[in-house]
Design goal:
By secondary structure, the chain is an alpha/beta fold. The protein is globular, with a radius of gyration of 22 Å. A hairpin with a 7-residue loop joins strand 19 and strand 20 (454-456). It has helices at 45-53, 105-118, 140-157, 168-176, 183-186, 190-207, 215-229, 236-245, 279-283, 318-326, 345-355, 394-399, 425-438; strands at residues 32-37, 58-61, 70-74, 77-81, 94-97, 102-103, 129-132, 136-137, 233-234, 251-254, 292-300, 303-305, 339-341, 343-344, 359-363, 373-382, 385-386, 401-408, 442-446, 454-456. The strands form 5 sheets. It has a 10-stranded mixed sheet with strand order 9-7-5-2-10-1-11-15-19-20, with helices on both faces. Strands 14, 16, 17 and 18 form a 4-stranded mixed sheet that branches. Helix 3 (140-157) packs across helix 4. The chain has 13 helices and 20 strands. The chain has 3 domains: 32-134 and 232-293, Adenylosuccinate Synthetase, subunit A, domain 1 (Adenylosuccinate Synthetase, Chain A, domain 1); 137-229, Adenylosuccinate Synthetase, subunit A, domain 2 (Orthogonal Bundle), CATH 1.10.300; 300-456, Adenylosuccinate Synthetase, Chain A, domain 3 (Alpha-Beta Complex). It binds guanosine-5'-diphosphate (GDP), 6-O-phosphoryl inosine monophosphate and magnesium ion. Residues 37, 41-47, 69-71, 73, 332, 363-364, 366-367, 446-449, 453 line the site of guanosine-5'-diphosphate.
């Protein structure tokens, strides 16, 4: 497989690679490849990362927490990753959890240990994991508060967000309000950490009087986690700098969540609390924008959404049910049924405007194999008139009417297709339409869960 890694661009200027007192290098360094969700999540990012990770030296997570659920199927075994980069399955690569990620420590160790038992892929995973000292910590009480906030929203507004209750919103709130605690704090003076932890608990208890926290028990556990974590912790900025400017390295960034869940660009307030678009790769890892190379957008051949919020192409009918059942559309993190609908190219184009995709991976084409006809949303109308933008206001988005293009179904099993010519002409037509409408080449087409079921187009 030929990937457009740009390691060949690396120029040796003769400058010392190390930072610190020596001169920093002024060449461009290596380029990083970024994989991002182009819809509302669960597009198959894990699978695309797994495919690319076989060639990567470093695989990084830059944002989100264990609200993500990325599935990887290797040799018939299914692994699910929430906090760990999916690339951890490749024993030759290093995995890095960047400063932009919020980490729930019990969740991290549980996930690694659970997946390690499934096969040989994760053996010794702790030795291949680097955790940034600047990453913020999600505490158990953040998760409890997440649930309390959902109950409050339901009571006050008659609807909640439908969060994963993994404490993501509260942890990023602590970070933004500058009361959060980071990995470097946990590994520093524990007395100081304990004081700040108690203050943070107190702050939340004054907002939520029903919140009970066994502070001493939490601190005892955190101290134990700290010792298990210590060998993995590094200064993420320096690590990335070395990876970019040392010997040519192939660096892959695994986005979590997706464009329409982005705190700035998503369907606010029905979003997550981090930047899931390309900027999150820079701020969440400490890498300069000029080091971003390929940006691969992952989109399903239809659309799904977990949780509450407007979904213009949702099909609350037999089509939606068929997509849900055939696509096994159940959340990896929460076990909730995913809402399903037709592919919405208004949102994928919007995601492209923000991310500048260099290519797209179109997944789950095989799920459409049995349909008589397939629709694709191409524009939104309001009061009968096309609107030029993806609306920021959710009341407006709720009201839009979708303009569709209709395609005849190919009614052929595509799951065994391994190259473009194996696909039926009607499926090829569907793919080419999508490509032309977004204006970005489709590099892969997914026709099944495993690594092999990815048709590479160029
Ligand atoms: P992520 O969060 O973007 O990594 O995606 P998830 O893992 O949450 O959900 C994608 C689901 O679709 C997983 O169960 C994958 O195994 C599955 N999947 C990915 N690509 C394909 C595909 O091309 N065809 C089929 N049938 N399943 C796929
Ligand atoms: P991956 O990486 C799908 C959704 C939740 C909820 C909203 C806010 O697997 O694609 P949060 O717990 O983040 O505060 O929830 O965002 N959400 C996701 N939906 N896939 C994800 O991740 C998601 N991460 C968050 O369902 O609606
Ligand atoms: Mg997922």
């Amino acid at each position: 497989m030929s990937l457009s890694w740009s390691a060949k661009d690396h120029k040796n200027t003769g400058q010392p690679a190390a930072a610190g007192p020596k001169r920093l290098r002024n060449d461009m360094g290596n380029k990083v490849t970024v994989v991002l969700g182009a819809q509302w999540g669960d597009e198959g990012k894990g699978k695309v990362v797994d495919l690319l990770a076989t060639e990567a030296d470093v695989v990084c997570r830059c944002q989100g927490g264990n609200n993500a659920g990325h599935t990887v199927v290797v040799d018939g075994k299914e692994y699910d990753f929430h906090l760990l980069p999916s690339g951890i399955i490749n024993p030759k690569s290093i995995s890095l959890i960047g400063n932009g990620v919020v980490i729930h420590l019990p969740g991290l160790f549980e996930e690694g240990d659970k997946n390690e038992k499934k096969g040989t892929g994760l053996k010794g995973w702790e030795k291949r994991l680097i955790v940034s000292d600047r990453a913020h910590i999600v505490f158990d009480f953040h998760q409890v508060v997440d649930g309390l906030q959902e109950t409050e929203r339901q009571a006050q507004e008659g609807k909640n967000i439908g969060t994963t209750k993994k404490g993501i919103g509260p942890a990023y709130s602590s970070k933004a309000s500058r009361t959060g605690l980071r990995v470097c704090d946990l590994l520093g003076d524990f007395k100081d950490f304990s004081t700040r932890f108690k203050n943070l608990v107190h702050q939340y208890q004054s907002m939520y009087p029903s919140l009970t926290v066994d502070v001493e028990d939490q601190l005892k556990k955190l101290k134990e986690y700290a010792e298990r974590l210590r060998p993995m912790v590094r200064d993420g900025v320096y690590y990335m700098y070395e990876a970019l400017h040392g010997s040519p390295k192939k660096i892959l960034v695994e986005g979590a969540n997706a464009a329409l869940l982005d705190i700035d660009f998503g369907t606010y307030p029905f979003v997550t609390s981090s930047n899931c678009t390309v900027g999150g790769a820079c701020t969440g890892l400490g890498i300069p924008p000029l080091n971003i190379g390929d940006v691969f957008g992952v989109a399903k051949a239809y659309t799904t959404r977990v949780g509450i919020g407007a979904f213009p192409t949702e099909q609350l009918n037999a089509v939606g049910e068929l997509l849900q059942t055939r696509g096994h559309e159940v959340g990896v993190t929460t076990g909730r049924k995913r809402r399903c609908g037709w592919l919405d190219l208004v949102i994928v184009r919007y995601a492209h405007m923000i991310n500048g995709f260099t290519a797209i991976a179109l997944t789950k084409l095989d799920i459409l194999d049995v349909l008589d006809e397939i629709k694709v949303g191409v524009a939104y109308k309001l009061n009968g008139k096309r609107i030029p933008h993806f609306p920021a206001n959710m009341d407006v988005l709720q009201k839009v009417e979708v303009e569709y293009e209709t395609f005849p179904g190919w009614k052929t099993d595509t799951s065994a297709a391994r190259k473009w010519n194996d696909l039926p002409a009607k499926a090829q037509n569907y793919i080419r339409f999508i490509e032309n409408h977004i204006g970005v080449p489709i590099k892969w087409v997914g026709v099944g869960k495993s690594r092999e079921c990815m048709i590479q187009m160029f």
